[in-house]
Amino acid sequence: MTKIPYFDAHCDTISRCDALGCALRQNEGHLDLLRLRTFEKAAQFFAIYFDLAHAPAEGMFAVCKRQQGIFARELAQNADIAAPCRTAADVERVNAAGKVAALLSCEGAELLNCDPANLAWAQEAGIRIVNLTWNHANLISGTHCAEPERGLNDLGRAFVREAQRRGILIDVSHCSDAAFWDLIRCTEKPVIATHSNARALCPHTRNLTDDMFRAIVETGGVVGLNFYTHFVTAEGKDATMDAALRHLDHFLALGGEKHLALGADLDGCEALAGGMTGVQDMPLLWDALRKHGCDTALLEDLFYNNLLRIIA
Questions:
Q1: pLDDT at 215
Q2: Domains in the chain, CATH or no CATH each
Q3: Which residues are bridge partners to 45 per DSSP?
């Protein structure tokens, strides 16, 4: 298969390691370090995640710290093939050394107790992206499926300001439409949707409207294309590679050439579009896009450069 670069904005592999006790170096999920290492150069955002509905007695912030510890420990144990990164310069340095660049995100502000004061810890821990919410409404916002009419409150706006002051990107995948527009009105930095598609093609509330995509572009932000079948086609039916490519075409027509990345949602979903079964199949996407008419410059932007730019 084609030797390609790879930089993806969202996977749930760390929470899977936490839940199952599996290793990051090699496992039976969608993604591991050995498979990432087969790319020409590879970088991956690993999301800290835990379902708020099943919050343990020790609290969500304790879970966040535990999973950050798993991330740090796994990378220390695999220093021969991977290294933790925070910035674009880190990623380029680690990739130049032939290793996988691993970055950290946090899927839901509830993992930080929605407390702006905890963002100091997040910054120190190397977290570069924080979702406003997952699927459950939290102290700062509603979500696309729970209290969708509720946007950012004063605490939410304070959380955004502090995150952006500390160089942490705000992720709108999963948040309510109301919160999205509240964020757009107050943001001072680029906005990212790490794993969301076009609502015009798949009418799921997890996906972005055209106006939302344009607004993200105007902030200088990035949208990661999601390959979970249910966000590619209605109810995940006939989620072929062509169906996935239509989301790319749709966003490109809205000015997305420098604002699209990969956000495949690996280890966070049951089935991937186009018959892909894990990160090892991403060269199939590259080859499909080349046959679709995408030139090398666009492919390199989508697969690597656009996400690198936003963490510079």
A1: 98
A2: 5-310 (3.20.20.140)
A3: 103
